[in-house]
Amino acid sequence: MPQDTVFFDVTEALLSASARRIQNYGIARTVVEVGKEAAALDENIRFVVFSFGTRSFYEVKWRRADDGTVVFDLPENVGQRWFRTYYGGAFLLSGIAHLLNISMASRRNKRLWEKNAHSLSKIDIPDGLFVSAARPKLIVDMIKALKNAGSKAAVVPLLHDFMPLHNGATKRFRRFDRNFLRDNRFVIERSELILTNSEFTRDELGHFAAAKVLPKPGPVAVVPLVHHCPDGVEAPEISLPAAPYLLSVGVNLGRKNIEVVFNALLRMKEAGRGVPNLVLAGAPRKRLKRYAEQAALRPIRDHIIFAKNPNQTDLVRLYTNALAVVVPSRIEGWGLPAGEALWCGTPAICSTAPVLREVCGDLGLYFDPDDPDALAALVDKLMQDTSYRESLRQQIAEAKPRLRTWKTVAGEVLAALRAIKR
Fold first, then answer.
1. Which of 144-148, 212-216, 250-254, 401-405 is predicted with the least confidence, judged by mean pLDDT?
2. What whole-number distance in Å separates Cα of residue 419 and Cα of residue 422?
3. What is the chain's percent helix, strand, coil content, to nearest 5?
4. 246 phi and psi angles, rounded to 5 deg
5. What is the dihedral angle through the alpha carbons of 249, 321, 71, 309, rounded to the nearest 10 degrees?
6. Which one of 75, 144, 145, 232 is separated from 350 by 20 to 30 angstroms, measured CA to CA?
7. What domains does the chain contain, in order, with CATH numbers?
């Protein structure tokens, strides 16, 4: 096996398939799309998944579908419930978690793995490059497994964001945030090269390292994510709203800041202006649904539509036919919905979170995330000014050849890997 062999981890895709999700979202989406394009660019890459039951890696084969796209042969229903085995310097907690893993979850994971993943072959990773865009908490277990096996492989993670480290990004510094910090420290200290999904995330890494919150990293390469929103192959399953609508994808309360969108629509209603519908697409959020049912939102409740886990075909339809896509987040690592909106030719109304300007540049419309009146004014102008709306869409269409694709991202990942001196 050549020493520079690339082992590309697709465990997040496996976990997504086991959860029976219609499509991959967020990090799993990044893993799948970058992996597919990397396979098409370099057939020598080997793809692996990690079993949390057997604590071993397995090779994943891929094939080309009739349309030429890459498809990974991933088993379903493998269970693989992950739970924390690492607590930083808390060695007692880590030891207890390790024993629990052996006696409880590991047995279940191992049983389901042996039942449903028997098509996969165990693989050793003695050296080469181990590349993973998984969540850091998962990479921790993978690094420990590599070390226990005596592997000399160089670890290259793609880090997505450091949002839990911001005091203002969460209500309090919860146990999750402390664990997130420990996981990232562990991964950064053991990485040969770090990839970040945006210049903003790279700068965040530098900021937290300078503040001694995170360790000083070695080489860092920025590989910005995409605007590309691939067409779906599934049949459409939902009906689009007949009236003009705004679209928000993967939103929630708090950091995702959907509250400002509700408040903007309320301001428009109170001012006697036309109010568009608001389609909220993504995984169902019980807390968000309860929030939308509160008395204060009664004047606009009929305008709020939940689109539960739309398939890729329907997601593209929702993007393409929307008046605009609203991304109100206070902070993001990249902001896929903003980029995907532009790819589909639709205006993106974004908060002034720094990375969203990196995604949309001068094609985006921006508002202060604490200013519902500014958002309402942008929406009203799109609703009322036909020539403005058509001009904006024309600008977006003309810019499409410059937008980033998953093939672009995969190519830049591979270029960064080739630059590593072993």
1. 250-254
2. 9
3. 45, 15, 40
4. -90, 155
5. 40
6. 232
7. 6-226+406-418 (3.40.50), 245-402 (3.40.50.2000)
